[in-house]
Amino acid sequence: MPTAPKKPCAMAHCTKLTHDRWCEKHRKEAQWKKTPDGIKRHRLYQTPFWRINRQQFLANHPLCRECEKEGRTKLATDVDHIVPHRGDRELFEDENNWQPLCRECHNKKTRRGE
């Protein structure tokens, strides 16, 4: 019986082909979001604190820090946690742990596991 053709992994910018939704590398990464710890981390991004302060931070720091290092000028779209907070609310809310990044640079950093 013929099998369906492989399709790209659902993880942003991953080029691996798979019969499932995610490739082997990204399957575990996608599954953590369904755990109680993953749900707790995700909820931090839904708080009024984050929505207000994220918007204000991007208004005050409109350019991507990584692109600037490489001599490019690109608008930041994401507020990145320099040190991953892993659900630690104090580290999550520490503005000294934030940096403005464009979506492309943020995705690259996330893929590297930083």
Describe what you observe in this structure:
- The protein has helices spanning 24-31, 36-44, 48-60, 65-69, 89-93, 103-112; strands at residues 7-8, 17-18, 78-81, 98-101.
- It is mainly α and 114 residues long.
- The chain has one domain (31-112).
- The protein has a two-stranded antiparallel sheet with strand order 1-2. A two-stranded antiparallel ribbon has the order 3-4.
- The N and C termini lie far apart (43 Å).
Pick out the low-confidence regions. none
Q: Give Rg in angstroms.
A: 17 Å
As laid out across the biggest beta sheet, the strand order is 1-2
How many independent structural domains? 1
Largest sheet: 2 strands, antiparallel
**Oligomeric form of this entry?**
single chain
Distance between the termini: 43 Å
- Approximately how much helix is present in the residues? 40-55%
SSE run: EEHHHHEHEH
Total count of helical runs of at least 4 residues? 6
Please report the total strand number as a whole number. 4
Mean pLDDT: 87
Assign an overall shape.
globular
Q: Assign the structural class, choosing from mainly alpha, mainly beta, alpha/beta, alpha+beta, or little secondary structure.
A: mainly alpha
User: How big a fraction of the residues is strand?
Assistant: 5-15%
